[in-house]
Amino acid sequence: MGWPVIAQNLLSVSARLVSVIVPTRNSARTIAACLESVRAQTYRPLEVVVVDNGSSDSTVAIAAGLADRVEAFGPERSAQRNHGAAVARGDYLLFIDSDMRLRPEVVADCVATIAATGAPGVIIPETSIGEGFWARCRALERSCYVGDDSVEAARFFPCSVFEASGGYDEALSGPEDWDLSQRVAAGRSLPRTKAMIDHDEGRLGLRDHLAKKRYYGATFRRYLGKQRSSMGRAGVLIIRPAYLRNWRRLAEHPILTAGIFGLKGLELGAAALGVLTGRRRQPTV
């Protein structure tokens, strides 16, 4: 695509509304920083839609001061996202989690990428931040995944594409991002932004982390049934090609690397237990 066409596309999309949709549940620790990062975007116009699922903390009160619209809806993250899309007014939809912070150029980069490529979705690479040993392990692990189609999933879509896809599969909790991204991509590689998302892991506790993996595992069988060609992209796999490609980076941090593989093994066990025992009560965070 030539630069004159790209420039024309940029002019045609630059004034289009982008709706940022944020599902929440007991997100008081992170929601202010998340929404403030959206408000700090260089792109305009924006609207912020928060969809809360029965928070018992101050999430809703904090969101009310920063979002354009706060909705109450459940019972799962996929349903919350679909509801947010249904009430949003934007030509483009960006789905983020309440523990994420957008760097200032993220939305502008997404819009420019759509204009330049005509792609049905855009992937935004992520970094992990947090406190403690396990959070440092996660940060190193995630640094290996940047640019990896088997791990990263699209978060930014033209509204028309999202509606045509049917949105997020509300029977999935955990792999719904991959599922939608794969359906939208239809076998092609989706473009990525240069601007990144910072994912705030906080002080990562093993008990809560593995409880989430067990919960997500309850619907993973459905995901594999839908995406049989992608069995290798399970988020709990211990060995991934990304580790082999980044072996030098991992070798520089042997203790953290050992922690990564130990954590992946525990995640695999937790997810397998979820597959075997079925759906449990949704984690509170």
How much of the sequence is in beta strands?
A: 15-25%
Largest sheet: 6 strands, mixed
Q: Mean pLDDT across all residues, rounded?
A: 88
CATH class equals: Alpha Beta
How far apart the termini lie comes to: 44 Å
Order of helices and strands: HEHEHEHEEHEEHEHHEHHHHH
Tally of separate domains: 1
Looking at the structure, the CATH topology is Spore Coat Polysaccharide Biosynthesis Protein SpsA, Chain A
Architecture blueprint of SSEs:
Blueprint: H1 3-13, E1 18-24, H2 31-39, E2 46-52, H3 59-64, E3 69-72, H4 77-87, E4 92-95, E5 100-102, H5 106-117, E6 122-123, E7 126-131, H6 133-143, E8 154-158, H7 159-165, H8 176-185, E9 197-203, H9 206-217, H10 220-226, H11 241-245, H12 247-251, H13 254-277
Parallel strand pairs: 1-2, 1-4, 2-3, 7-9
Antiparallel strand pairs: 4-8, 5-9, 6-8
Helix pairs in contact: 1-5, 6-13, 9-13
Overview of the molecule:
The chain is α/β, with parallel strands linked by helices. It has one domain (3-277): Alpha-Beta Complex (Spore Coat Polysaccharide Biosynthesis Protein SpsA, Chain A), CATH 3.90.550. The protein is 46% helix and 16% strand. It is built from 13 helices and 9 strands. It has helices at 3-13, 31-39, 59-64, 77-87, 106-117, 133-143, 159-165, 176-185, 206-217, 220-226, 241-245, 247-251, 254-277; strands spanning 18-24, 46-52, 69-72, 92-95, 100-102, 122-123, 126-131, 154-158, 197-203. The strands form 2 sheets. A 6-stranded mixed beta sheet has the order 3-2-1-4-8-6, with helices on both faces. It is globular, with a radius of gyration of 18 Å.
